[in-house]
Amino acid sequence: MSADNSYLESAKKQFLYYKALGEKAMEQLEPEQLFVAVNEDTNSIATIVKHISGNMLSRWTDFLTSDGEKEWRKRDAEFENDLQNKQEVLSVWNKGWDCFENALNELKPEQLSDIIYIRNEGHTVIEAINRQLAHYPYHIGQIVFYAKQLKKSDWSSLSIPKNKSGSYNAEKFAKEKEIKNFTDDELKRLK
C-alpha cells in the first residue's frame, strides 16, 4: 500500500470514528436535550450538527473543481436553529456525512497533492482533509461534552471509563504486537 493510499485509508477511519462518537453521544439523549442551549452564546447540539453538515456540504460538494466556500452556503444561518425534532437533526447530520464520505471515497491517492481552494486560499487535498480532521472532531468533542453534561449520571462512557485505564492497558499489552489503526477496536467498542 502506498503512503498516499495509507494516509487516505487512515483519514477515513479517523472520520468514521468521530462520526460514531457523535452518534453515540446523541443516542444517549432525550430528543429535547438536542435543543438545549445554556445561554445566548452557546450552541445546542442540534445547532452544532447543522453547522458541521453545512460545512461538509459546502467543502465537499464538487471540491476538486469549485471553491469550498460555496456561494449558496449561508454559514450564519447554520447557527440559527430551525430544526424541530431528533429525526430532522439526524437527517441533517447524515446529509453532511454522506456528502463528505462520498467525496473521500471517490478520491484517488494521486489526487492528494492536487490544489483545491477554500475562500480563494489554495490547499493541497491532504491539507484540506487535515483541516477538516481538526475541525469536525473539535465540534464532535463539543457534542460529546455537552451530551455528557446533559445526561449526567446515566452517561455511558465513549472512551476508557474512569478508573479503568489499568485493565484496558492490561488487555492491550496481553496481545501480540500488530500494526493497525486504533479506530479498528474503538469502532467495534462503540457499536
Per the principal axes of the C-alpha atoms, what is the gross shape? flat
Helix content range: 55-70%
Q: Give the integer mean of the pLDDT values.
A: 92
* Beta strands, count: 2
**Mind describing the biggest β-sheet?**
2 strands, antiparallel
Element order: H for helix, E for strand: HHHEEHHH
Q: How much of the sequence is in beta strands?
A: under 5%
Strand-pairing-aware structural class = mainly alpha
Distance between the termini: 28 Å
Poorly predicted runs are none
Radius of gyration: 18 Å
What's the arrangement of strands in the largest beta sheet?
1-2
Supply the number of helical segments. Answer: 6
Task: Briefly summarize what is shown.
This protein has about 190 residues and is mainly alpha-helical. It contains 6 helices and 2 strands, in the order H-H-H-E-E-H-H-H.
